[in-house]
Amino acid sequence: MATDWLGSIVSINCGESLGVYQGRVSAVDQVSQTISLTRPFHNGVKCLVPEVTFRAGDITELKILEIPGPGDSRQCGDSQQMDTAMPGVGCQVGPSQNGTGKVLKKPMSSSAPQNIPRRPDMKSQELLISPQQQCSKSYMDRHMETLSQSKGFRRRHNSCESAALLPQLLPFFTKLCWKLTHLWVVLKQNIFLTPPGSSQVGDVCSRHPNQVTPKKSGLKNGQMKSKDDECFGDDIDEIPDTDFDFEGNLALFDKAAVFEEIATHERRSGTRSRGAPGDRPARYRHDENILEAQPIVYRRIVVPHSPHKEFCTDSGLVVPSVSYELHKKLLAVAEKHGLSLERRLEMTGVCASQMALSLLGGPNRLNPKNVHQRPTVALLCGPHVKGAQGISCGRHLSNHDVHVILFLPNFVKMLESITNELNLFSKTQGQQVSSVKDLPDTPVDLVINCLDCHENAFLRDQPWYRAVVDWANQNRAPVLSIDPPMSEAELAIDAKWSLALGLPLPLGERAGRVYLCDIGIPQKVFQEVGINYHSPFGCKFVIPLHST
Predict the structure, then answer these.
(1) Please, what's the largest Cα pairwise distance for the chain?
(2) Residue 335: exposed, middle, or buried by beta-carbon count in 10 A (0-12, 13-18, 19+)?
(3) Which residues pair with residue 52 across a beta bridge?
(4) Dist CA 257 CA 237 (whole Å)
């Protein structure tokens, strides 16, 4: 009897500790009460060993998943029959005292993975099942088989019915397209072309009751039937024989004419028109004045004489140049009213240092993460007021963690302004040198030129001046000139940028790009020297100027 189960696929539940095993029965020992499975699976995962043996005491539940055919072994329940058991009905076997298995029919229900054999024909299954097996089936077994048969029948029936309905649905879709086209033509003629206040739209809907989907009504159980009647309830005889011509009906739609009709209707009814893109009002920013104001005047600075050169700002304001004599007179009048030389030097140093810091990289270069990339600036100053302006700029740069190397030649007697600026510069970490040999041999980040002066032309013949000029031209670093002279012959060093004070001088091409800084001269001081002045700086103290 035990050899009849060899080759069967079973599922053995050994409790929560050992889990569920599945495999093919390879040996059954009635004496030692053991069963062996080949190619076993433990909880759905294939085991590493080829065979597993179980004792009867470890088995909680045993289910037969598949019984081999007549050529392999016999059927569960009767050792003399060679028929195949019906799949889906498992045989539960529990150990008994005499060593034989007690066979009970029970519907298979387990959460563990199971191998389901191919379903044979239902008629052949009914013939193969013995009368004894049919009698031994419980009510639940027969109910489950009937339920599975009815579900399979409904699936096949629904699929066949859907396939048979496809040819019948095509005429209904064709008629639906005809109705939608006719409805669009009627609505276009009676809505877009009907004057406001007319009630012809309701008349159209009453004349064509079939064009509008009727209101759905009915109980909950009859909603599906009402939907089917709405879509497929018309008589099939009313369907035209010809197919719907999509391309022809699309060609009948004149898009330009329809939009023209819509625009005409909007103009007659007084509604807001879309308008062409050119007719739309201009869009304003959130900070832009939308009120009508006076015309913008770009020439706000007028000098008493005809300027030799004019500049313009980024906003378009015209800034004329002034002569050196008028510029000198402007500074003298400002000093008479309280804008002393010390104040002017301080303002010039602040503006020049701000511009230099921007040229060095600004916050991208000067931040705590770039302490290893400390910029180096070579400051070349002469023994005059221009040099004092450069020393003030170097002091502010050194206060902003810039390595400043100040060159100033030795003189027996210095100006008081230079002496005061040197005393302040000596309190910083800047380095002061008086010989060209002490200047760095490698290129620096920036060279600030304050050597040239408008009056002391004899300094250009000094040996130290020529040596410094040669060093600056060979260093290959960009040059910033502060208040350079207007004559190109007086510029020994070609500059990339130049910074003018108050109002620019007519600088040449060698001065590079011109910037203008505000040194704090009041408006009435400009008027006192004959200049009609309106500040072009806006919110800045240093602005770029462009040649016109």
Answers:
(1) 136
(2) middle
(3) 37
(4) 36
Cα–Cα–Cα angle for 85, 1, 88, nearest 5°?
20
Residues 378, 470: Cα–Cα separation, whole Å: 14
d(CA 398, CA 384): 21
SS3 at position 203: helix
Q: H or E element: which one contains 27?
A: strand 20-29
Q: Cα–Cα distances in Å, from 108 out to 44, 56, 93, 145, 455?
A: 17, 21, 13, 12, 114
C-beta of residue 28 within 8 angstroms of C-beta of residue 10: no
Dist. CA 142–CA 107, nearest whole Å: 10
Q: What pLDDT is recorded for position 343?
A: 95
Q: What is the pLDDT of residue 380?
A: 95
φ and ψ of 504, to 5 deg: -80, 155
Tokens of 495: 């500059």
DSSP code string of 355-401: HHHHHTTGGGTSSGGGGGG--EEEEEE-SSHHHHHHHHHHHHHHHTT
Up-side HSE of residue 521: CA atoms within 13 Å toward CB? 30
**pLDDT at site 196:** 47
What are 79's two structure tokens?
């050792």
Q: What is the pLDDT of residue 328?
A: 93
Q: Beta strand pairing status for 403-407 and 431-433?
A: parallel
Retrieve residue 455's tokens.
């009056």
20: number of Cβ within 10 Å: 21
Q: Is the dihedral of CA 389, 393, 399, 405 positive or negative?
A: negative
Query: In a 10 Å sphere around its CB, with 0-12 CB exposed, 13-18 middle and 19+ buried, how is residue 109 labelled?
Result: exposed
How high is the pLDDT of residue 324?
92
Q: Which two tokens stand for residue 69?
A: 């055919």
Angle at 522 between CA 289 and CA 421, to 5 degrees: 120
Neighbouring C-beta atoms of residue 106, cutoff 10 Å: 15
How far separated are the first and last CA of the chain, in Å rounded? 115
Structure tokens at 527: 């008027």
What is the distance between the alpha carbons of residues 498 and 510, in angstroms, rounded to a whole number?
9
Mean pLDDT by groups of 10 residues along the chain of 548 residues = 80 88 89 89 88 88 81 42 36 40 39 45 42 44 51 48 60 73 65 47 44 48 60 58 75 81 78 53 70 79 90 93 93 94 95 95 86 89 93 95 94 89 94 93 93 81 91 92 83 90 91 94 94 94 92
d(CA 43, CA 19): 6
Q: Which pLDDT value is given to residue 239? A: 57
Q: Read off φ and ψ for residue 520, nearest 5 degrees.
A: 85, 30
